[in-house]
Amino acid sequence: MKVILVSQRHGSTRSFTLGGWTRALVSVCLLGLPAGVGVMAGLEWAKGEGADLFNAEAAGAWRDDLSDQREKIELTRQQAEQQLAAITLRVAELQARLVRLDALGERLTSIAKLDSGEFDFSQPPALGGPESAALGDAYQAPEFVDVIDQLTAQIANREQQLEILETLLAKRKLENDVFLAGRPVSKGWMSSRFGRRTDPFTGRVAWHSGVDFAGKMGSDIISVAAGVVTWASQRQGYGYLVEINHGNGFSTRYAHNSELKVKVGDIVKKGQVIALMGTSGRSTGPHVHFEVYKHGRAVDPAAYIHRAAR
Ligand SMILES: [Zn+2]
Q1: Alpha carbons 57 and 135: distance in angstroms, whole number
Q2: What mean pLDDT comes out for the span 130-142?
């Protein structure tokens, strides 16, 4: 390294060559200068703004800040605990409700006489599907969240089961309505049975294709099941007749009425008044001649009259 020095006063120059350790020394001095300036500046800053760090008063304020924060953390922790307790209570309530729902479901299943295997309210629903590739290391939710997830799934399943059950029960009720049972009169007594009997007009043994209920003139004649009116007018021998088709191959006839309350095509409910008692047609006094047809053949109505409505 060659160093040239210029004198201001004499304008003369002097040059000399540095070598070895002298050169290293000069390099250190030149590089050390900015570092030294940096250190000095840092110390100056410390004396100014940073000075608080080192006096007792500031330390006290700091401790206050810390205890303040500790209090806030404690408060937050307490609030979190209270919220957790509230949620735990809520979950317990949901579990209790689910137990009641299960009990209701089991009772309904037993009332509806459904296969016990079809609706099992004590077991989780059967689920399946092909295994899918795991999406890496999934986030592990806390146990508590698992419980809520399980509860939600259980409740959704029970809702679905109860909905299906309701549909089934509604269908069963409809079937009950078309189920033939009971008497065609609310007041009256059976005056003649089904089968062989002495004909009241000829005095000869004849076949009686229905049963007779005697009662007061004009008393209510009621349908023994829901159905559609297929006849509502006079008919030879029957007088004023109502015939109702109940579906499933069943139909009923109500004869000798004084007045008809329905017309062909009417949909009637079980127990609905369809006519008033009379003595029209081949009749000796106020009564209803009641016939039950099963697939077009007159059968003994007694079996249907005496069976209990489901
Ligand atoms: Zn009769």
Answers
A1: 56
A2: 54
